[in-house]
Amino acid sequence: MCAIAGYFGGNFSGETGASYLRLMLDHLNHRGPDGNGILINGDVGLAHARLSIVGLADGAQPMVSTDGNLSISYNGEVFNYVELRQELNRKGHNLRSSSDTEVLLASFGDKGLNCLADLNGDFAFAIHDRSRQRLILARDRMGVRPLFYTQCNGAVFFASEVQALLALPGVSHELDPIALDQTFTLWCPISPRTAYAAIKEVPPGHVMVLEAGMQRVDAWWKAEFPDRSDLATDASPEDQLEELEALLMDAIRLRLRADVPVGAYLSGGLDSSLLSALAAKIHGHELRTYSLRFDSVEHDEGRWQEMMAQSIGSHHVSVTSSHDQIRDDLPRVMRLIRQPILRTAPVPLQGLARSVRDDGMKVVLTGEGADEIFAGYDLFREAKVRRFCGRQPSSGRRPRLFQRLYSYLPGVQQQTPEYLARFFGVGSEDLQDPLYSHRPRFKSTASAKLFFSSELRGILGNYDAAEELASQLPEDFRRWHPLNQAQYLETRYLLPGYILSAQGDRPMMANAVEGRFPFLDHRVVEFASRLHPDRKLKGLREKHILKDVARRHIPGGIIDRPKQPYRAPDAASFAKPKGSDYLRTVLSPEKLKASAFFNPAAVGKLVDKAMQGEIASFRDNSAFIGILSTQILAVRTSDSLSNSKNGTDLNHVR
User: Fold this and answer.
1) By the 8 A CB rule, do 409 and 563 touch?
2) Spatial contact of 240 and 544, defined as CB atoms under 8 Å apart
3) Could you count the other beta carbons within 10 Å of the beta carbon of residue 95?
4) How many CA atoms lie within 13 A of 509 on its CB side?
5) d(CA 622, CA 184)
6) If DSSP codes are grouped into helix, strand and coil, which group holds residue 138?
7) pLDDT digits (tens, 9 = 90+) for 242-291
8) Rounded CA gap, 456 and 442, in Å?
């Protein structure tokens, strides 16, 4: 796990190219503090900052093939490198190192881009083929590892994080209004768009090929589901249970491969509990687990975390996040994330990763992906209830199901069936709408756009982020079961665009901690996609088959507890009496007018509500955090904003 950077073209001198590479590495060293390297070959430059996990003594990069033709800079892990090495040895390859990097390089030399299908891993890499004068940029299937690029000074530059590209002379720091509208509707930009107009990303499961006068981006892997008419119903539930358990065990086994210790995040929910329990069995000795707690009772899951840690006998570390820490740390985390966010959730996760690093660990297993591929989110159940109610819109009993669905929200419990039906849009939407499952989320989130300025509205015109999303759906999308449609929207967009990036890679790698995601092993993902929807969402029982597997390994209290999605305090973190110096600065009328994204008068009223602790609605919470995070990014480095109380300098945090 590391950071990569480089360029293709530009006709630079070697000295100029090296200066660009060093400049980018200066902004990536937090990802790879164990060493770095630079390689320049004509019009191609590769750079690497290393976090040593596999092949500690002989895995330095950039790495060159034995014949000198191929060179690589690579971020991530190929977990099945042992098996691939054996195959390469049988073919007569003589590998010199113990690293997975050389295995990847040799596999590419053996099969070209066809080698991607053999890789079980999370990766972003650049391979230069000197004989063909070609550069390949590739990203893993699910988008676990990041890869961004921009065009500057006649060259294509690429890097693992946006700030490395923003450091280059001539790269614009302007935020993209379309990306902002997408974020305030969909929670993240639609790939390849990023928050910055000048910077794009290689989408998950894609390769970018650069040759003289040519640049193309192609998909090498796509999420697929069977047509609803082809859904298998004859498979034995017991056989499926055994297959899933075996797949998960093997996915975890592969992800425990490392030349350094591997720990696990333990949230107290089903997914991380099951992973930790299985990992403890495979590990063979005491597993180190890490949990995030909150001062806020509404958000804390400490009871369940302690129960699970005791159950598996792990060495357990808890970190408590406070409102003050969230408020004070937000600017630094935003400079890492480099995209507006609508929730403060990434901020405590950065503190959790810091505690892992302080404990001497570099690698943790984590449960992201299970909710997406096994239908664990309330959104999936809500869409099912809405369809059920929509078939009898006059029913007074069916809307009561929303109260079962959101048992942890007191406001929902107090409403009448008529109000619930209106609030959740029962009977008011087209059941054939491809975005049916997500329309309530999009509508609720987009209500925060009431705070957009007239200038931004003028730029956006009639642009509709949801309709652009709908226009990019696969041709066979409408033939899929509604649950699979909803799952595709989550796994293709929100998962890589927000969960794995803003809440995953950036907070972890800010502390040089690698996250590994067994549920996103492509074999597990493809197995789940083939399942009949009832095996994932049976009635209103989410993650049905996964819970059946978990019943064999973890306490029933964890499995049967009410679902509590991970959330952190949002606007409440900015209420008086302590408040924050930078809050009034970045949201001042002058700064708001300068960025021209938001209405200063409306935002001023919202800030007053936040500081008085009067924000409670989803719209105002998401609007407040969205506006604040956007403004932090919009503040230019020349403004020299700092918080004298906590020492947070908005210009120099990385």
Assistant:
1) no
2) no
3) 14
4) 32
5) 9
6) strand
7) 999 999 999 999 999 998 999 999 999 999 999 999 999 998 778 999 99
8) 19
Token digits for 639? 């403004």
Give the type of residue at 552: R
Tens digit of each residue's pLDDT (9 = 90 or more) over 59-104? 789 999 999 999 999 999 999 999 999 999 999 998 888 899 999 9
- Rounded Cα distance, 337 and 503, in Å: 9
Share of residues in the chain with pLDDT > 90 (%): 78
Tokens 């299970």 belong to which residue?
370
Any bridge partners for residue 498, and if so which? none
Q: Residue type for 326, please? A: I
Residues 565, 406 contacting (CB under 8 angstroms) = no
- CA distance linking residue 394 with residue 365, whole number of Å: 47
pLDDT per position as a tens digit, 153-189: 999 999 999 999 999 999 999 999 999 999 999 999 9
Rounded to whole angstroms, the Cα distance separating 6 from 8 reads 7
**What is 362-378 written as a DSSP string?**
-EEE--TTHHHHTT-SH
CB 595 within 8 A of CB 606: no
364: tokens are: 């943790």
What are the pLDDT digits (tens) for 629-639?
999 999 853 34
Strands 262-265 and 288-294: parallel
For 568, the token pair is 């952190």
Q: How far apart are the first and last CA of the chain?
A: 18
